[in-house]
Write a structure and sequence with these properties.
By secondary structure, this protein is an alpha+beta fold. It has helices spanning about 15-20, 30-40, 85, 90-100, 120-125, 150-155, 155-170, 180-200, 210-220, 255-260, 260-275, 295-300, 320-330, and strands at about 5-10, 45-50, 55-65, 70-75, 80, 105-110, 130, 140-145, 170-175, 220-230, 230-240, 245-255, 280-285, 305-310, 310-315. The strands form two sheets. Strands 1, 2, 3, 4, 5, 6, 7 and 15 form an eight-stranded mixed beta sheet that branches. Strands 9-10-11-12-13-8-14 form a seven-stranded mixed beta sheet, with helices on both faces. The protein starts with 5 loop residues before the first strand and ends with a helix.
């Protein structure tokens, strides 16, 4: 007879991160800095470890918010399964759902953000979770198993030529920022440029820069790349690292960045860094060609492969609530 599973919530941030980052599929979404960001946005953040006979099976960090009688529960980047947890994935998910004690109107959403495993997918299907997929749930992924010369040769000429030009420009410099004060200053400039970019292009975003500022500056797995022309900052690009992938996250720039092809140079520096960190994949952070064709065309030129991103998996005790939520989410 299989041993029963236990779930214990953990409050110690350092202990949580130490245990999480020991796992191959660990990612920023299941680590405490991301939880802190969500808490600053007014969400209730909880985390728990699933065990059996003292063996760790999974780590789950989730966000909760209430709207009237409805509770929304959101898990990003997880549940993070251990090797033993992969073998008992269905039981892990079943225990987590039971731990939440969902009401009839509550909704649970799980988004692996590119870190989903086959065992997790099968467990979600077996428990009746429904995938919600939108056109924008696609991204470009670059296989970092290739050498840099091969990757460069596969670029479209319209991408490679600006990169070559930017690399020859002695006035253009790049630097990954490590020191906290420098990272804060860069993020403040990013915030100003990002606001102007949004005003000009009118795109939607979930990023709340005031809430993310301290997290971005303090989390060593968040890469902040500073690009300058003649010493003046023209572009800030933010990405995040895991053992398996480097994911392009946010970027903001000014007119001089466009004039100097700083964006191409910044992306290439991220690819080089990801390769040096032994990542398997560079994830270009999503595409939306119908709504943002210019960014799509820029990303396509790198020569990466389009893939469907992990879906948003939803679950509710009431089939009617789950069906209605799926319909509403698909129309967003």
């Amino acid at each position: 007879m299989a041993a029963e599973l236990a779930i214990a919530e953990i409050a110690d941030d350092a202990d949580w991160d130490r245990r999480v980052w020991a796992r191959p599929r660990a990612n920023i979404y299941c680590a405490t800095p991301w939880g802190s960001y969500k808490a600053r946005r007014g969400l209730t953040v909880r985390r728990a470890v699933v065990t059996t006979d003292g063996e760790e099976l999974a780590f789950v960090q989730w966000q909760e918010r209430r709207k009237g009688p409805v509770r929304f529960v959101h898990v990003q980047g997880g549940p993070l399964l251990t090797g033993a947890g992969e073998r008992r994935a269905e039981a892990v998910f079943r225990s987590f759902v039971a731990h939440l004690d969902l009401g009839r109107l509550d909704l649970l959403a799980i988004d692996y953000e590119g870190f989903e495993s086959q065992d997790a997918t099968l467990a979600l299907l077996m428990l009746g979770f429904a995938p919600v997929v939108q056109a924008r749930d696609h991204t470009f992924e670059l296989d970092l198993g290739q050498d840099l010369e091969t990757i460069r040769a596969a670029m479209e000429p319209r991408w490679r030529k600006p990169l070559n030009k930017a690399e020859r420009n002695a006035d253009l410099t790049t630097h990954f920022l490590e020191e906290r004060t420098e990272r804060l200053a860069a993020f403040d400039d990013f915030t100003v440029m990002y606001a102007r970019l949004r005003q000009r292009k009118g795109f939607a975003t979930t990023l709340q820069t005031d809430a993310y500022r301290e997290v971005a500056a303090s989390d060593p797995r968040v890469l902040i790349l500073d690009v300058r022309e003649k010493g003046e900052r023209v572009l800030v690009r933010i990405a995040h690292l895991s053992a398996e992938r480097c994911t392009d996250f946010y970027t903001a720039s000014n007119d001089r960045a466009r004039a100097t092809s700083a964006a191409s140079l910044a992306v290439w520096r991220l690819v080089e860094r990801a390769k040096a960190e032994a990542c398997h994949v560079f994830d270009f952070g999503g595409i939306d060609p119908a709504s943002n064709r210019a960014v799509f065309d820029f990303k396509r030129g790198l020569g990466a492969t389009v893939v469907q991103h992990d879906p948003l998996w939803i679950y509710a005790k009431s089939p009617a609530v789950q069906k209605a939520a799926g319909l509403l989410l698909s129309l967003r």
